[in-house]
Design brief:
- The structure is a single chain.
- The chain is of the alpha+beta class.
- It has a single domain (3-82), classed as CBS domain Like (Alpha-Beta Complex), CATH 3.90.1280.
- The protein has 3 helices and 2 strands, in the order H-H-E-E-H.
- It has a two-stranded antiparallel sheet.
- Strand 1 and strand 2 form a beta hairpin.
- The two termini are 25 Å apart.
Length: 92
């Protein structure tokens, strides 16, 4: 991810967090789940499988390190299947 994209995503995430905090406090929305660079693929799948979020922001401290989408996880699973891994055992 280039620096401009990272800065724009960080700005959007900051604004989104402020809106979500206000909406959550008012009982209008659920909080956004985030993860860290150490979060496993299996945990990310759990976060995205409930249908409440389309993507999970990856935070390294207060810095936005990336964004994982459902499509990213599907691509990971497809790559593992193509490489001969059965996809049954995801890293824990």
């Amino acid at each position: 991810m280039n620096a401009l994209t990272t800065r724009l995503l960080a700005k959007e995430l900051h604004q989104h967090r402020a809106l979500m905090t206000a909406a959550t406090a008012a009982g209008l929305a659920a909080p956004v789940e985030t993860a860290t660079p150490e979060t496993t693929a299996a945990t990310l799948m759990d976060l995205l499988s409930d249908g409440h979020q389309q993507a999970v922001p990856i935070l390294d401290g207060d810095r936005l390190a990336g964004l994982v989408t459902r499509s990213d996880l599907i691509a990971l699973l497809a790559a593992r299947l193509r490489s001969g891994q059965d996809g049954k055992a995801m890293p824990q």
